[in-house]
Amino acid sequence: MAVDKKSSKEGYIELRFGPRWKYIACARSFIQNFLAISIADQTRADKIAMAASELLENAVKYASGDDTHILVNVYPETEKIRVQVINKASDESIKALKQVYGKISDENSLDAYVSQMKEAALRSDGKSQLGLARIRYETGGDLQMEIKDNVVRVMIDIG
Question: Which of 96, 98, 91, 70 is nearest to 149 (CA)?
Fold first, then answer.
C-alpha cells in the first residue's frame, strides 16, 4: 500500500517499529515534540499527539505482522495535519475494525462518541472500542480507512 509522503513545503515525520506497547509512549512524545515546533497551538498539538497515540495503540493491539508504521504530515500553508497509521491485521481484526468504523462514521462525531461510550459501559468483554470515536470527536478531524491485502491504513485529516 503506497504511503502519502511529502511535498516540498510540508514538514513530516515517519516512524516504523515492531508492534510493541513500550514504543507507543516514546512515539507519542516524539510526535508531540515535533508538533510543538510545527504548529503554534499547543492544545491542538496535544490532541493530535493523543490521536496518533490512540491509532498506534490500535495498530499494535491488532497487528498480525512485525511492522507498525506512522506518518505525520504538517501542511504549513493550510495548517492541515494528516496522521496515518499502517499495519497488517488478521481477517477477524479487520472485520471488527470495519464494524466500529461503520458505526462511528454514520453519525456526527459527538453522537458517535456518546453512543460508543454507552455501548462500552454495557460491554462485559473488557473492550471499550472508544479509540476511533474519541479521535474523531476530540480532533474534529476527517477519519478515513483503507484496507488492501490485510494491510490497514487509518488516516485522520485535521485542520
Answer: 91
Q: Which of 41, 81, 57, 24 is nearest to 130 (CA)?
A: 57
The helix-helix angle for 131-139 and 109-122 (nearest 10°) equals: 150
CA-to-CA distance for 67 and 78, rounded, in angstroms?
31
pTM passes above 0.90: no
E strands, the chain, are 11-17, 68-75, 80-88, 142-148, 151-158
- d(CA 41, CA 78) in angstroms, rounded, equals 14
**What 8-state DSSP symbol labels residue 10?**
-
User: Quick one: cell of 142?
Assistant: 476527517
**Cα–Cα distance, 66 to 133 (Å, whole number):** 26
Q: What is the C-alpha separation between 66 and 61, in angstroms, rounded?
A: 12
Q: What percent of the chain has pLDDT over 70?
A: 94
Cα–Cα distance between 87 and 35 in angstroms, integer? 23
Strands 142-148 and 151-158: antiparallel
Mean pLDDT, residues 84-106: 92
Q: Residues 23-66: pLDDT tens digits? A: 999 999 999 999 988 888 889 999 999 999 999 998 988 888 88
